[in-house]
Design a protein that fits this description.
Number of domains: 2
Strand content: 5-15%
Largest sheet: 6 strands, parallel
Oligomer: single chain
Radius of gyration: 25 Å
Strand order of the largest sheet: 3-2-1-4-5-6
Structural class: alpha/beta
Order of helices and strands: EHEHEHEHHEHHEHHEEHHHHHEHHEEHH
CATH architecture of the largest domain: 3-Layer(aba) Sandwich
CATH topology of the largest domain: Rossmann fold
CATH class of the largest domain: Alpha Beta
Distance between the termini: 27 Å
Shape: elongated
Length: 394
């Protein structure tokens, strides 16, 4: 990990749940020395990712070291600040009142380390009328409007099948941290970087959101169909279904020629993009009558040959076994003292100057696994560490 671009940076990770750990994982995967700080077992706090040995926990916390500190104790806060004095980045997702009560807020850390980059993630933002509310992914999916445009028309709201607001907020916070590092390289100044699940998901509405901000147009559910382009959606084959995008005039003509129905391209109901949206139901019915005579493999090949994006509908296992996913080596191995060897999902970022590591440096750590190692590096003596242990600080 020493040759990766973030290898010179130390990160103190105070995050729980998913959004914060997703941000920190970006830093850990690219070489940062991430020290995950958790309450000791005596606190009664448990890992909410399904247990330390679960796939979720291992995937979130790989490449990290772990120590325990009871931040509710004065000695614990003092120990954290001692570590923060030498750190580059602190990442947390406490509610505002909690971080101030514990004395680990930005101002407290900045007082002892002015160059610190302090990164926060929350459900609804650091201030405002909802800032004191707890926020989790599904709540934000609803509040952001995402669920109202997901699913089949008139079938009620539907959540997206992944924790999209958690992971999106994590990605945005990771980007913010990297921007702050660039700023510090120029000025020597640290700063407070923060985002929220709500800000991230409102941003992720993208063109659906811009339809409202520009024209006050409220998007609705379209199921598997594209909201504004046609044909772009799900079609039947003789042995399954495919996604097909043939919404430009050029693509639609290519579809018609390849499937030997050139008259469809000239049909005034279908010969422009606007007409194809207006007559979408008729168009899809006629196209389905054609696609259902093809196998999935045959149709996918034919459409991609003529420049129409087309692909199968996989389950998760099939996706990982796809030849392109295999080629991209999205699974990378890691070794765990208890679980043995297994695979996790690599970072999707590729850099020409840095090879993506062929394996993960560390599996997700045990609770307090690196207490002594990290604290000795921080300058504590073995006697000080033992005293902290005896006092249940670590």
């Amino acid at each position: 990990m020493a040759d990766l671009p973030l290898a010179d940076y130390t990160v103190l990770d105070l995050t729980l749940a998913r959004a914060g750990p997703a941000a920190v994982r970006l830093l850990a995967d690219w070489g940062a020395d991430v020290i995950r700080i958790e309450p000791p077992s005596s606190s009664g706090v448990v890992d909410i990712a399904g247990g330390r040995h679960s796939p979720d926990s291992q995937n979130l916390h790989r490449n990290k070291r772990a120590i325990t500190i009871d931040l509710k104790l004065d000695e614990g806060r003092d120990l954290f600040l001692r570590l923060a004095k030498k750190a580059d980045i602190v990442v947390e997702n406490f509610r505002m009142d909690v971080k101030y009560r514990l004395g680990v807020d930005y101002e407290s850390v900045k007082n002892i380390n002015p160059a610190i980059i302090y990164a926060s993630i929350s459900g609804f933002g650091q201030d405002g009328p909802y800032s004191d509310r707890p926020g989790v992914d599904q709540i934000i999916q609803g509040t952001s409007g995402l669920m109202s445009i997901t699913g089949e028309p008139e079938q009620g709201p539907m959540r997206v099948g992944i924790a999209i607001s958690d992971t999106s907020a994590g990605m945005f916070l990771g980007q913010g941290i990297l921007l702050a590092l660039l700023h510090r390289e120029k000025t020597g100044e640290g700063q407070w970087v923060h985002t929220s699940l709500l800000e991230s998901m409102v941003n992720k509405l993208d063109f659906q959101g811009a339809r409202y901000t520009m024209h006050r147009e409220v998007a609705v559910q379209q199921g598997n169909n594209h909201p504004t382009n046609s044909p772009m959606g799900l079609f039947d084959t003789s042995d399954g279904q495919v996604n097909l995008a043939a919404s430009t005039n050029k693509m639609f003509r290519a579809f018609c020629e390849k499937m030997e129905v050139p008259e469809m391209a000239g049909d005034e109901r279908f010969n422009t993009g606007r007409a194809r949206v207006k007559h979408r139901d008729e168009l899809f019915a006629e196209m389905n009558a054609i696609t259902c005579r093809q196998t999935t493999a045959e149709f996918v090949t034919k459409m991609n040959e003529v420049g129409c994006p087309c692909g199968p509908i996989y389950n998760i296992g099939e996706a990982f076994e796809d030849e392109q996913v295999k080629f991209l080596k999205m699974e990378r191995p890691v070794s765990h003292a208890v679980l043995g060897d297994f695979n996790l999902i690599r970072t999707p970022i590729n850099m020409s100057a840095f090879a993506t590591p062929e394996s993960f440096d560390r599996a997700g750590p045990e609770l307090g696994e690196h207490n002594e190692e990290v604290l000795l590096e921080a300058g504590l003596s073995e006697e000080e560490i033992e005293a902290l242990r005896d006092a249940f600080v670590i």
